[in-house]
Amino acid sequence: RSKRRGRAQITVYSQEIAQEMKRATQIEQALRNAIIADQVDVHFQPIVDLRSDTVVGFEALARWCDADLGYVSPSIFVPLAEERGFIEQLAETLLRKAAQAALSWPKELFLSFNLSSAQLMDPATSSRLLSIINQVGLDPRRLELEITETAVMADADVAQKIVSELRAAGVRVSLDDFGTGQSSLGRLRDFSFDKVKIDRAFVSRISADRASEHIIKAIVSMCEGLELEVVAEGIEDFAEALKLKALGCGMGQGYFYGKPADAVATMRYLSDRYRDSAASR
Ligand code: C2E
Ligand code: MG
Ligand code: MG
Ligand code: MG
């Protein structure tokens, strides 16, 4: 009897897998078309210096809404583009758009762009990225690249080479989602980073549990010693912002300071801020 049920379950699972594969292929086709039709967009979320409460840069975040599929999250379609071998095309169109938008911002603001793990395994990545921003005309010193520990671990030698080539050109590199995944503190010693981004998981629990507070405190102090900037991700309210400031965290990002917004809304956000600061001078 249990055998029969087992077989029934296997049938259900394989149907589910077939469904999922069908959907993945559907997303793949739609995304490939969207890239060609220039329908993948990029939004920008402010990164703030917590010491002065001023915007210092923006993180570019991919956005895509398909007519049939609706909104698809980048945490779905970025890995899919990697698996199906067209991350390069996706990344190129995103970086081009993001860099283009950054040209209109005040020059002191940086653009932070996420690199996927597949990009960090391809030795051609650094020259490719540099040639894109060179074509657009963005100063490489205004570009920052976010990479994750998991991505670094896939092929550490190649990743290290890519990172050092980019840094030699003036690009800064930050370690994203720090504290999640298979964290290795040795990575911070062997790799040259400029910044560490503390994962939202710690920030969102900072008011609720003391453990998260202690972990953030330790990360901040370690980064001070290593001369790395620290950014807290996912700050959602004033209380969290105050706590992070008190813990000595230098930079922050999250809905409290601004949600990701398109290029036009980002310019509006900036012009409001700069008008205010000009008026108070
Ligand atoms: P990430 O790089 O860690 O980006 C931060 C994510 O947290 C973004 O989600 C952002 O919208 C969200 N977020 C920011 N502040 C808050 C907050 O206060 N509360 C909450 N609940 N969430 C907040 P998003 O845009 O859905 O992106 C998810 C992930 O997809 C990113 O994580 C990144 O790993 C990846 N991704 C997004 N755009 C790109 C891209 O252009 N290239 C690559 N390779 N990956 C990308
Ligand atoms: Mg990021
Ligand atoms: Mg992150
Ligand atoms: Mg993340």
What does this structure look like?
The chain has 281 residues and is of the alpha/beta class. 51% of the residues lie in helices and 19% in strands. It is built from eleven helices and nine strands. Strand 4, helix 4 and strand 5 form a beta-alpha-beta unit. The longest helix has 35 residues. It is globular and about 65 Å long. The structure holds ligand C2E and magnesium ion (3 copies). The site of one magnesium ion has 4 residues, from strand 6. It comes from Sinorhizobium terangae.
Short description:
The chain has eleven helices and nine strands. With 281 residues, it is an alpha/beta fold.
* Number of alpha- plus pi-helical segments: 11
Share in helix: 40-55%
Distance between the termini: 80 Å
Report the C-alpha radius of gyration, rounded.
21 Å
List the uncertain runs: none
Main beta-sheet annotation: 8 strands, mixed, barrel
Beta-strand proportion: 15-25%
Strand/helix succession:
HEEEHHEHEHHEHEHHEHEH
Report the bound ligands by name, code or SMILES. Answer: ligand C2E, magnesium ion
Number of strands: 9
**Secondary-structure-derived class:** alpha/beta
Shape: globular
Across the major sheet, the strand order is: 1-2-4-5-6-7-8-9
How confident overall, as mean pLDDT?
A: 92
